[in-house]
Give the backbone structure.
Amino acid sequence: MKCKICKGKAVIKLKRHNIKLCKEHFNEFFIRQVEKAIKEFRMFRRKDKILVCVSGGKDSLVLWLVLSKLGYNVTGMYINLGIDEYSEKSKTKVINFAEKNNLKYIIVDLNELGYPIPELSKKSRRPECSVCGTVKRYYFNKIAYDYDFDVVATGHNLDDEASRLLGNILHWNDEYLEKQLPVLPAEGKMLKKKVKPLIRLTEQEIASFAFLNKVDYILDECPLSVGATSLVYKDALNLIEEKIVGTKQFFYLQYVKKLMNRLEHKNNEKSDIELKNCKICGMESFHDVCSFCRLVSDER
Ligand code: SF4
Ligand code: ZN
Ligand code: ZN
């Protein structure tokens, strides 16, 4: 197997692009895809302060590394979710990775704050992942606001977004469908812009990049993800991709392209809705009490 560019030894075959590449040219391809997404969707500028949400998994660690190598001003944010051994292991991965690569980071510890996800889920009688989503969203905004970041970046990849799109279409979740852009604009002063620079890359490509570049990430999945429907949609899309190469990319990126103007227009409209300051924590919210404070206090 020879690299299409230099004819050296190829280490990877990219089916959807119909090319084989050596490590050096795969890395170049990979970084180009990230740069392309940043430019195409105007995610951030050189001078922006970027908060990268890191979980210890391959996607977020790779994103953190690539953005820092590209010279962006990045800081990682790790939220210790308080999910037993999994959280401890992933925290260690993040800290070791940051130290090895000389990266700045911030840790939010839900155990110390008294809000570990399993406990919050029991108390609120809401599914763990739904509680986790609310808490993570809250701290992404809060930390970004408190430390004056311009933008929040997450490691969502093409598989994540395509499977989410499939799930939302299958259930006709119109409201969520409208939020499936790689960029969500800031709202008010406190709810920061959110971006997904890895949306042009598949899970497999990211795993290959991590392997080839010795990114030491946590292999275990979150134990609470067992039975998640998103995994079913991912499997379904992989099955189609096996037979019809390029479907995943076409499905998601064409959706974004065709509907971007309309969606952007709608998102702009949304910023006209008046934001209030949460009566409990002061963060901006569309309600008198924000969804995080409703979750952790008795005001439900
Ligand atoms: Fe949170 Fe785990 Fe659910 Fe992911 S799978 S949303 S980390 S609880
Ligand atoms: Zn090569
Ligand atoms: Zn609040």
About this structure: The radius of gyration is 20 Å. The CA atoms of residues 4 and 131 lie 47 Å apart. The pocket of iron/sulfur cluster (ligand 1) is lined by residues 81, 117, 128-129, 132-133, 222, 224-225 (CB under 6 Å).
